[in-house]
Specification:
elongated, 2 domains, about 10% strand, alpha+beta, 4 strands, about 160 residues, CRO Repressor
């Protein structure tokens, strides 16, 4: 017990070694929790996934600086990770839950027409759409574009017309 207290300290008055040990433990706890949350947490970049990352970082930092005890911090992070997994799993089977948790995609351009209502609702300008067209197709025009969508993760996807 004395060794643990020496390495990890107690309360807010921590020395460099103690904060370093707490940071190392927090790193491995975060790594374990993110592995539990699944690869989608970093792969998708949706608000749903980013909330988990931000919350884990904020809560784990409390243990590093000694504001909160380590065990309650790890417990809180575990609960957040399990909630994330549960909501991700439920959203696979329920479109309603998926729409609440992950949002929904919006069509911004189809059949040669801008979908101005969706563009306005999502604050996407014609320049934003053209930027995505240039980045994804290398073209500076909508002539070869069949559709443009704002995906649930916030990225704009461009579908080009089929060439025959």
């Amino acid at each position: 017990m004395e060794t643990i207290l020496f390495l990890f300290g107690e309360g807010k008055d921590l020395n460099t070694l103690q904060m370093g040990c707490r940071a190392a433990v927090s790193f491995f706890v975060a790594l374990l929790l993110i592995r539990m949350a699944g690869q989608r947490t970093f792969g998708k970049g949706s608000a749903f996934d980013n909330v988990v990352i931000i919350m884990l970082g904020a809560i784990l930092s409390r243990a590093v600086v000694g504001v909160s005890p380590v065990l309650p911090v790890v417990t809180a992070c575990l609960i957040i990770t399990l909630i994330h997994r549960l909501l991700a799993w439920l959203s696979m089977y329920s479109e309603w839950i998926g729409a609440i948790v992950k949002g929904k995609a919006y069509c911004l351009y189809k059949n040669g027409r801008r979908q101005k209502g969706n563009m306005k609702k999502q604050l996407i300008s014609p320049k934003d759409m053209l930027e995505s067209v240039r980045l994804q197709t290398g073209k500076d025009s909508l002539d070869e574009v069949d559709a443009i969508h704002l995906e649930r993760n916030g990225q704009i996807s461009v579908i080009t017309k089929k060439t025959q």
